[in-house]
Amino acid sequence: MRVSRSVVEDSRRLRDSFLHARPFQHTVIENFFEPAFAERLLADFPAFNPDPARNEIYGGVWGKAVNTRIQQISPAYEELHELIGSPEFPDPMTDPALYGGGTHENLHGQDLDPHVDFNYDEPQKLHRRLNPIVFLNKGWKRDGSLEIHANPRRPAENRIRS
Fold this sequence. Notes:
This protein is an alpha+beta fold. It has helices spanning 5-9, 11-20, 35-44, 75-84, and strands at residues 64-67, 103-106, 120-121, 126-127, 148-149, 160-161.
């Protein structure tokens, strides 16, 4: 099992937490993966590659690199790719292209403006309903580094959770 036993055992409560969260559906799940699997993913996390960090409009290398071909990174990431598409994972339909997904590395000091995370895949005509974000940082401190916005395009209606 790659998803931690405690998450599986607590799945009903986590589901309810997600469904009843306000002002929008979300939940935080500590230790989602079994520790050994998380360690393998962390050990195999790809080194920062400046090629995908190159900004096509402004030029130059920015501080964020993305790899959507996770199954090609290592055997651990191949297992992760299989897990995402398996019944063990909580999404009823998975995007095989990982549109907007994959590994993302932001170098120290890199930030992102509030945005809507690839919620519609035009080629497949699919709306994203679940957007899992997994942090593999050891010793990461909850300091508001991640903010989830209800509607960043309408500040008067926006609600934020850190």
